[in-house]
Amino acid sequence: MIDTIETIGEGSIIQHGKHNDRVYLMKLKEQDVDMIIDEIVKLADINKYSKLFCKVPKKFAPLFFAEGFILEAFIPKFDNGKEDVFFVSKFLNADRLLNIGDKQFSKITQLLSEEHIIKKNASSYSVRKLTKADVEQMTNIYIQVFESYPFPIHNREYILETMDENVQYFGVEKDGKLVAVSASEVDDVGKNAEMTDFATFQSHGGNNLASLLLKTMEKEMKKQGIKTLYTIARVNSIPMNKTFLRFNYEYSGTLIKNTNISGQIESMNIYYKHI
User: Fold this and answer.
1) 3-state class percentages of the chain: helix first, strand second, coil last, to nearest 5
2) pTM (predicted TM-score)
3) CATH number of the domain at 126-274, out of 1.10.3720.10, 3.40.630.30, 3.40.50.1240, 3.10.150.10?
């Protein structure tokens, strides 16, 4: 099951479908401000989605708050190193807020109070930027690592399409074969990038390959003039949270039951870093 990504109004981008059971306003065009809330509410009502999730410039957030949205996270100086962005949500079904469980959240609370040191990587691994020639190996890793994912990264055509658009992929190799991958989803206009789609073969876990990827990605993003990096990390993945904290990313909120990943809808943490 794959959710639909489409453009509405004058260029706003949404993702919606039963896979994540939500409407996700990924990009809001200023010209669409007056109509966008009615449109996504209508879409959710027709399809019985249980959550509206929106990434919006701070200046428009009061319009969403007036319609019952709540602030779940934020990133300061997100757009061109100047304008803040708010992640606001509206829960349309009480079940979406029930039975969250506090075990993983307690671990995150503990992590946020600890000091984190970057560990050395094994010298037998190398990292590089990936090309279309790597797509088969990339999708093979994603298929084995994730039972489900919010975007169709298991699909080679999707990977190829995103490579032609705004996504740059990176990979770790050992003995000439890919064993870990990641991606930077770049907004050249807003000078920000999402550090995402990290996956490592289980047989190569424990070698800090996500840290090796992140270090390389950061250098590449800085070279390209990107000012703000961020990620949406699974609350359930303590190692991934640790990776971003080691690299001095700031925690700024949690998205409750937001994303279908590894077979279930999970809560996600927002981290950001200015470079």
Assistant:
1) 35, 40, 30
2) 0.93
3) 3.40.630.30
